[in-house]
Amino acid sequence: MVALYQLCAFDKALHDRNQLCSGFSRFFFEVLEYVSDLKHFYKTGYGFRINYLLACPLLEDIVRRLDASVEPNSKNGSVVLRFGHAETLIPLLCLLGLYQDDVRLTAHNFPRHRHSRKFRTGTFSPFAGNVAIVLYKFGTNFKIAVVVNERVVKLPFAQCHYCDYSTFKHLLSKRLEGIKCNTVCDLNRHTEL
């Protein structure tokens, strides 16, 4: 059944047809979507802290580049592009606190999360999913926006869509307090992650 669901999804995405999907009920699709979300939740998302901490060096580098861009007389390029897969995108979004539900996703709470969950990978990490962290300059002030699949999203830890860069940095450092990004993958580290 899972293979048919995936085949149906690929057929719809690649050929804009749903011939393979016509034999399935809406409930069937909701259950299999939830199964897929559970897999990503525990493999690359909020299921285990180490999953999203793996994006820590990437986020550190992004912030380092943004810091260099806000320096007076900065000569930094205006665009830095990186490419990856869902296994990079989902941990980064989780590290930023996006799409986190109040109650952990489990196999037993599908009825609760069926329609209302935030962690829905088909929405924030579909085919060709993307994230942009955009720095805007207004005179001497800088604002930052996080754009997921061409939509500006509100950062939960900052409660803003377009945040002052200094506020963003301060609140991000509080969110990441106590995390040493360069030791996340250290094999000699204890297992408190």
Model description:
19% of the residues are buried. It is built from 8 helices and 4 strands. The chain is α+β, with helices and mostly antiparallel strands. Strand 1 (131-138) and strand 2 (141-148) form a beta hairpin. It has a domain at 49-183: Rossmann fold, CATH 3.40.50.1240. Strands 1, 2, 3 and 4 form a 4-stranded antiparallel sheet that branches. The chain has helices at 2-15, 26-43, 49-53, 56-70, 86-95, 110-113, 121-124, 165-175, and strands spanning 131-138, 141-148, 151-153, 162-164. Helix content is 42%, strand content 11%. This is Multiple inositol polyphosphate phosphatase 1. InterPro entries: His_Pase_clade-2 (IPR000560), His_PPase_superfam (IPR029033).
What layout of secondary structure does this protein have?
Blueprint: H1 2-15, H2 26-43, H3 49-53, H4 56-70, H5 86-95, H6 110-113, H7 121-124, E1 131-138, E2 141-148, E3 151-153, E4 162-164, H8 165-175
Antiparallel strand pairs: 1-2, 2-3, 2-4
Subcellular location: Membrane
Protein name: Multiple inositol polyphosphate phosphatase 1
Pfam family, one: His_Phos_2
